[in-house]
Amino acid sequence: MSDILEFADRFFNAVEGGDIDAVAGFYRDDVTVWHNFDNLDQSRDDNLATLAGISGRYDAFAYVDVRHTAVEDGFLRQHVIKATVGKKTVNVPAVLRVYVDGGQIHRIEEYFDRGQLDVVFS
C-alpha cells in the first residue's frame, strides 16, 4: 500500500511542478482522463496539454489539504486546488479516482466544480 501512495505523491508532485515529461511517464499510452464538469474522456495528449497550460493560466497553483487512500487497483486522492490570478484566489475541493495497472495510470476520474476556477478570470 505504501508503494501506491508514494506513486501518487510522485505523480501529483510532477503535475503541480509542471514537469509534463514526468507526468507523461506515469501514463499508459491509452490513458483516459474524465472530468465531471464536461462528462468527456480526455486522451493522453489532450490531458498533457491541459496540464502543461496550468502555468500560463494561473499566477500561482498548488494542491493543499492532500489526502490519499490506496484501493485495490489504484488510489483515491482528495485535495484542494488553490489557484491565483492577480488578486483573486480560489480554493476548489477535488476528488480523483486513479486507476493504476502495471505501474502506470490507465484512467483518472476527476470531480470538481470548474465554475469555481473560472472565478479567478472574471
TrEMBL record:
SUPFAM superfamilies membership: NTF2-like (SSF54427)
Gene3D superfamilies: 3.10.450.50
Name by which UniProt lists this protein: DUF4440 domain-containing protein
Organism: Rhodococcus globerulus
